[in-house]
Amino acid sequence: MAQEQPKKYVSVKFLQERYGISRETVYKYMADYNFPKQIKLTPGAAAGF
Q1: What φ, ψ does residue 8 adopt, rounded to 5°?
Q2: Which sequence spans correspond to the domains of the chain?
Q3: Fewer Cβ neighbours under 10 Å: the N or C end of the chain?
Q4: Phi, psi at residue 16, to the nearest 5°?
């Protein structure tokens, strides 16, 4: 039986650094395209994608 891989989440900052895009661009992709929305991890932190 195959084990399920744990889910991995990345931050907006990671996306900015990895792809050289602005924070606004990340949020635009979430609003206008089929880009995954953020997930609230704690009251002060959100991640996802």
Answers
A1: -115, 140
A2: 12-48
A3: N
A4: -60, -50
